[in-house]
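Contributing new complexes? Match this layout with adenosine-5'-triphosphate.
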Amino acid sequence: MVGGPEAVVLDAPAKVNLRLAILAREESGYHSLESLFCAISLGDEVTVRRADSGLALEVVGAAETGPPERNLAVLAARRFYAELGQEPALHIRLVKRVPVAAGLGGGSSDAAATLRALNQVHGEPFGRAGLLQMAVELGSDVPFFLCGSPLALGWGRGERLLALPPLPERAVLVAHPGVAMPTPEAFAAIAKRRGPNPPPRAFGFDAAELSSWGAVARLARNDFGEVVAERIPVLRDALATMRAGGAEVALLAGSGGSVFGVFASEGARDAARERVEALGMACWVARTLAALPAPRVDPAPDTA
Ligand code: ATP
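Output block (do not edit by hand):
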C-alpha cells in the first residue's frame, strides 16, 4: 500500500443554495436542477483512520443519521475501496453537527470529506476527476464538495459544475423548524402543483451576475420555496423576518426544511436570530466560506 498518514481529519461544511431552479426533465426522467452552491462554516467533522480490517463507523452527536451501512460516509468509503481494488480496513469517526434532512447537504459533505481524507491516507491514488466520478454516484450534492471552491454553479444531477471565485465572507443564519422535509416529498409536491406546464429548459447567465453579493441577490431563488412553505408555514415568517432584518438573500436551503439568510454584518444577523428564535425555530450562526477546508493529518492518532 502506498504510504500516507495513519489518520486524516477533515471539516465537512454544509452548503446552502443561493439559487435552485428546477429545469425540464431530462431523457433519463430526472429533473435537471440548476444550483448555485455556497459552502458555509457550519459543518461536521470526519476522521478516517487506518484499521486492521473491516469498516467501522462511530457517530458522535445527537443527529439521527440512519443505519451505519446506509451512512453516506460508509457508502463513500466502500466506493473508494472498490475503485482501489482493496478490502476496506478503516475506522470512520463522524462528529455530526449539521441538522439532518434539512437541505444543508450534511450527508453529501460527509461523503465528499471521506473520499478526500481516504485519498490522502492512501497516498493520493486518485486525482480530482477520479474522485468526482465516485462522488456523482453517491448523490447529486457530493461533487460540489470536491470541486475545489466554496462557490460553484451546478447543473443536471450535480455532475456538471463550474467552480467560481468565492464571494467576500458574509454572516449567515440557518433556521430549522424541527420538521424534516425529505427530498422525494418536495419533488412530489412540485410535480403535483405544476400540472401540465413544463418548467423552462434553459437559463442564461453573465459572469458578472455571479461576482458580487448584490448581483447574486438579484438572481437568488428557490423553486421549492412555495410548496415547502405550504407544508411548513413558519418558514414564511422566518424568511420575512430575515428579509426585514436586512438579509441580502433569504431562501429555503435545498429542498428544505431549513431556511437561511445572508447578512452584511454579524450584528444584523444576530438581531435577526433573536426574532427567528422567537418564532420557535432552532437557529445556527455561521459564515460563508472563502475556501473549502483542507485535510489535516491527525496529530495524535493513538490518543483519539
Ligand atoms: P438530501 O437533499 O439528499 O435529502 P439533505 O441535505 O436534506 O440531503 P442529509 O442531512 O444529507 O440531508 O440527510 C439525508 C438522509 O440521508 C437522511 O435521511 C439520513 O438518514 C441519511 N444519511 C446517510 N448518511 C448520512 C450522514 N452522514 N449524515 C446525515 N444523514 C445521513
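Reviewers usually confirm one structural detail per submission. For this one: Residues 65-66, 70-73, 100-108, 110, 139, 183, 254-255 surround adenosine-5'-triphosphate (CB under 6 Å).
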